[in-house]
Write a structure and sequence with these properties.
Blueprint lengths: L2 H18 L3 E11 L5 E9 L3 E6 L2 E7 L5 E5 L6 E3 L1 E3 L5 E3 L2 E5 L5
Antiparallel strand pairs: 1-2, 1-9, 2-3, 3-4, 4-5, 5-6, 7-8, 8-9
Length: 109
């Protein structure tokens, strides 16, 4: 998939976050992991429409911030440093931001 398509899907994800008004996506519909961890049911919550969202599962919390210019920042855990990430699609149809991946019914459209 081209970088253009990834950015288009990222924009769609942000628009869904803005229309969700803070709603969460059910854990049963998505799975998440960091690195090579086992997949776990997770949920996505849009904390600030179009700008912030969070993935949560088990004891994990991953926050994302998008500034509208294409720059996306992520932090794993509340007291960790923010890292710049780029979304990418993997062969197993996972959408990843660095080492954090989501799979399943990711709300992209």
């Amino acid at each position: 998939m081209s970088l253009f398509h990834i950015k288009l899907w990222t924009a769609a994800l942000l628009m869904i976050g803005s229309s969700a008004g803070g709603m969460s996506v059910a854990a049963a519909s998505m799975r998440c992991r960091i690195g090579q961890q086992a997949w776990s049911p997770c949920r996505m919550v849009a904390a600030s429409p179009g700008q912030r969202w969070v993935l949560t599962w088990d004891q994990q919390r991953v926050e994302f911030v998008h500034d509208g210019t294409g720059q996306m920042m992520m932090r794993v855990g509340q007291n960790q440093a923010w890292l710049q990430v780029q979304p990418s699609w993997r062969a197993d149809r996972s959408l990843c931001w660095g080492a954090v991946c989501a799979n399943g019914a990711i709300p992209l459209e």
